[in-house]
Amino acid sequence: MSEVLWERMKAHELRDLAAKNAVVIVPVASIEQHGPHLPTMTDTRIGREIAVRAARRASPKRVVVVTPVVWCGLSEHHMSFGGTITLSPETFQRVLRDVVGALVRLGFHDILLSNSHGGNHIAMQHAAETLSIELRATIIATTYLREAAEAITPLLDDQAGVHHACEAETSMMLALEPDLVDASALDRLATPADPPLLLAGKASFRWRPFSGATRNGVIGNPARATAAKGESLLDAIAGALADLVTDGANWANPHAPSNEFRGADRSNRG
Predict the structure, then answer these.
(1) How many CB atoms lie within 10 A of CB 51?
(2) Distance between CA atoms of 136 and 247, rounded to whole angstroms?
(3) How many other CB atoms are found less than 10 A from the CB of residue 193?
(4) What is the pLDDT of residue 71?
(5) Cα–Cα distance between 164 and 242 in angstroms, integer?
(6) Which domains, ranges and CATH numbers included, belong to the chain?
(7) How far is CA 193 from the centre of its chain?
């Protein structure tokens, strides 16, 4: 199996990958509270695993390399529970800009920002837009719980998708780091899924701390978690991201004239 981890390669090997127009997956995550039963590394560990598995699955069709995880994200809403390290939105944007900028300087032009923390989602979309224009690269921002939603839902018993320290995340951590999961009281941690924490009116946003939705830092029912379910989830999610990477249409150059609907006719008529 060919190597996909950036940090295990030599500089000349990475130069070769740039020359081969490799896709670079940049896992973006967080260090934050995940209830009383999961470690603060949960999003970072899951995000790295998904990126590596996706890269290995995609490699027969497209050369892929995975950078180290951008482990600090936007987690202000978790600060009241402790154990959380967060960036300001401005710093988060600058970190992504500098990481992606370095990749483009090295000759990579197809970059997937692979997010495993819901709080980063909107900011990453903004980063993908601004950096695609500024750096003239093709940058995709994905959040696995959305990209793989159709594959995730049938694997879960008590919820329709991934929440926080829930059935899904607990299952994946049981598969990856069972020694770090405290399973002694999972049956007492369940919190109703999908609380209307950030919703105002019918479709408007308001900021609220996570403690407004849960007393223990959990959203969902971790008691339904199993290691086998976690392995199935990781495999399904990696498959969805591999499909994203290997679909050539996703990497069309947004700056090429052929991507303008007007084509050669720039008169704006009709």
Answers:
(1) 27
(2) 20
(3) 17
(4) 98
(5) 24
(6) 6-249 (3.40.50.10310)
(7) 20
Return the structure tokens found at 134.
């500024």
What does 75-112 look like in DSSP terms, one character per residue? -GGGGGGSS-B---HHHHHHHHHHHHHHHHHTT--EEE
Q: What is the pLDDT of residue 139?
A: 98
The pLDDT, as a whole number, for residue 61 is 97
- Give the separation between CA 53 and CA 238, rounded to whole angstroms: 6
Name the DSSP class of 197. Answer: S
Q: Map 136-157 to HEC letters.
A: CCEEEEEEHHHHCHHHHHHHCC
Q: Give me the pLDDT at residue 255, please.
A: 80
131/46 Cα distance (integer angstroms): 26
Task: Please list the alpha-helical segments (H only) found in the chain.
Answer: 11-19, 42-58, 89-105, 121-135, 144-147, 149-152, 167-176, 227-246
Token couple for 110:
């197809």
Q: Which residues of the chain have pLDDT under 70?
A: 258-270
- For residue 228, give the amino acid letter: A
Given this model, what pLDDT does residue 261 score?
61
Task: Give residue 266's pLDDT.
Answer: 52
Integer Cα distance of 121 and 142 in angstroms: 8
Residue in this structure with the two tokens 């007492």, named with its chain if needed: 188
The 10 Å Cβ neighbour count of residue 165 is 26
Tokens standing for residue 207: 């900021």
**Mean model confidence pLDDT for the chain:** 94
Give the strand pairing for 23-28 and 64-66: parallel
